[in-house]
Amino acid sequence: MTESQVVNIIAGVIVSYLIGSFSSAVWIGKWFFKTDVRLHGSGNAGATNTIRVLGPKVGLAVLLLDVFKGWLAVALVHIFVNQMAEPTWSYVRLSFAVAVVLGHILPVYTGFKGGKGVATLVGICIALFPLSVAVVAICFFVILFAFGYVSLSSVTSAILFPVFAIFVFPSETGSIPLILLSLGIAIMVPATHHKNIKRLLNGTEQKFKLKKSVDETNDNLNEKK
To answer: I want to staple 207 with a disulfide (CB 3.0 to 4.6 A). Which of 56, 106, 129, 148 is the partner?
Structure first.
């Protein structure tokens, strides 16, 4: 790897982090509704809480933007660096992916208080593991419609993801870095949902509802504790 390639990779990682730091839930809420979604509902700067606070149309826009961020970060690799031999190429893509998720969870623009990164991870996985994502998406919606909890659907789908990526569609994880990424997803998503898991076990987790609830301010940050 040449010195110029190293510089380009570092620059790409920084750009990926800055892209991830654009918290669409926060900025859309502030710009168009004068509302910080982090002060309502679950306090999370993500699509699910945006649906609770600002309604399904706004939540869908946030979801698509967050997914797009993840996809874009992986696509940017081709702009910053020419394709290399494996496994180096996969490690480079992995570094861009990690950077954009880190930006989403710890966004520099909004005081390092962001979302859980699930939608951004979906965008990354669409770029890297399209077949596995398709099957896991089906699992996600089956669990969501059966039980009504986005958190349960997210955690279960994340745990199932490496099973499909490694064993059912092994061509999508043809290198160690991509295997590690799929396993990392199964670890990271449950870790970032530890409060949700606790609420699920206590029976206090909110079920997903496609309705606006901006006036329900009493079930805000106290729910996170």
So the answer is: 148
Q: Which domain holds residue 174?
A: 3-212
Task: Output the pTM of the full model.
Answer: 0.81
**Position 225 in a domain:** no
Q: Is residue 222 part of a domain?
A: no
Residues ≥6 apart with Cβ < 8 Å to 206: 41, 42, 52, 199, 219, 223
DSSP states along the chain? --HHHHHHHHHHHHHHHHHHT--HHHHHHHHHHS--GGGSTT---SHHHHHHHH-HHHHHHHHHHHHHHHHHHHHHHHHHS----TTHHHHHHHHHHHHHHHHHHS-GGGTT----SHHHHHHHHHHH-HHHHHHHHHHHHHHHHHH--HHHHHHHHHHHHHIIIIIISGGGG-SHHHHHHHHHHHHHHHHHTHHHHHHHHHT-PPPP-SS--TT--TTSGGGG-
Assigned domain for 169 exists: yes
> Residue 218 falls within a domain, yes or no?
no
Residues 136-187 pLDDT 10s: 999 999 999 999 998 999 999 999 999 999 999 998 888 888 999 999 999 9
Give me 4's structure tokens: 């110029």
